[in-house]
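Many introductory courses stop at the sequence. We go one step further.
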Amino acid sequence: MSAIKYFLTLGVIGWLVLGLGGCGDSDSDGGAERQENASASTATHSHSGVKETPGPNGGRVIKSVQPAFEFFVLKNRHVQLTYLDDQMQPIPAVINARISLIGGDRMSPSSLTFMKSGDVLQSDKPLPPGDRYPVILTIEQNSEIIPVQEKFNVDFSVCGSCNLQEYACICGH
């Protein structure tokens, strides 16, 4: 195993053990916000920051790579990735990118890979059971660029402000 993959794997395992806090992103308050949000998971809560534009299907937009894409969980819990142009309109999937996801139970995480299905990429299996857990989405555009990792919580509760599921909330978390 190459040194980069070894350290990425260690980072993934460490991140899963330590977890994420807040409303979908990491926090810096030592967990106070995490406890507050856990007790009010379906209540309306305030968000600060810039309001984002939702994906065309109501999913989370991943902008750390180009082209950007939408992370959307289907009713069967499979994940659909839809690539987007600059106007947030769907475009055909980039087939040379390798994308994987690890998440779920920290003691026994699940791994998903993505395959082309029409103009989108779909996960090979559904997300694991549960309503809220951390995931790491790893995007390898090509073998010459260091993979990009997106870390967030897949949280199926509905935000009281934007009415999207928390994993896709656009209220500026």
